[in-house]
Specification:
With 221 residues, this protein is of the alpha/beta class. Helix content is 44%, strand content 16%.
Length: 221
């Protein structure tokens, strides 16, 4: 696996609250230069990126981020605005309170509403694994599958922990055949990125990938 292969699966990410336009421009320029899958940025920057870079870049954003407890109507409205502004991929955060209340039908309905709002674009569902039991993770795999989302994603990167290899293996056993996996949160080494891809992740959420790989993109890992 070459560095370019890893980068092609990376959502090059900058989601800190104080991110400035020059910082956003820098990650967009890097994403184009190194061929990442997308840039994952705050919703407020979508239109400016689309106006600046056009079709040269694939824009991903986050909705209900990072806590997930907005109403479904608010999430749907934000998702529609993001797509209208030029976003092609949406990473939504589920309502974790609904998980703890055992209201999985409500979660499935929200994901389905979000998929309808962004279709035909990509919807990734962040379940924030650090707050969940394995039983809850399995139930959420079913919710994501039944709602026909495109991806299940481990983490926001803002919780108490991020992706784990155990969670990826659990996802693989319990998602439907049309659902892909995105690992995110705390992925800071080339070895970790490679292992997540080998375990079946189609996307990696990482802010450090280009820094780690840019000088050795053609190297074998």
């Amino acid at each position: 696996m070459k560095g370019t292969d890893i980068l092609s699966k990376v959502d090059h990410t900058l989601l800190k609250a104080a991110a400035s336009w020059p910082e956003i421009q820098a990650i967009c320029d890097e994403a184009i230069r190194y061929g990442t899958a997308s840039v994952c940025i705050p919703p407020s920057y979508i239109k400016r990126i689309a106006d600046t870079y056009g079709e040269a870049i694939n824009i991903c954003t986050v909705i209900g981020f990072p806590l997930g407890y907005e109403t479904t109507a608010a999430k749907v409205a934000a998702a529609k605005e993001a797509v209208a502004d030029g976003c092609r991929e949406v990473d939504m955060v589920i309502n974790i309170g609904d998980v703890k209340n055992g209201d999985f039908d409500k979660i499935t309905a929200e994901i389905a509403a979000m998929k309808q709002a962004v279709s035909p674009n990509i919807l990734k569902v962040i379940i924030e694994t650090c707050y969940l039991t394995d039983e809850e993770k399995v139930r959420l795999c079913r919710c994501v599958t039944e709602a026909e989302a495109d991806y299940i994603k481990t983490s926001t990167g803002f919780g108490t922990a991020g992706a784990t290899h155990d969670d990826i293996r659990l996802f693989k056993k319990n998602i439907g055949p049309d659902v892909k996996i995105k690992a995110a949160g705390g992925i800071r080494t080339i070895e970790d990125m490679k292992q997540y891809i080998e375990e079946g992740c189609s996307r990696i959420g990482a802010s450090a990938a280009i820094k780690l790989l840019k000088d050795n993109t053609e190297a074998d890992y």
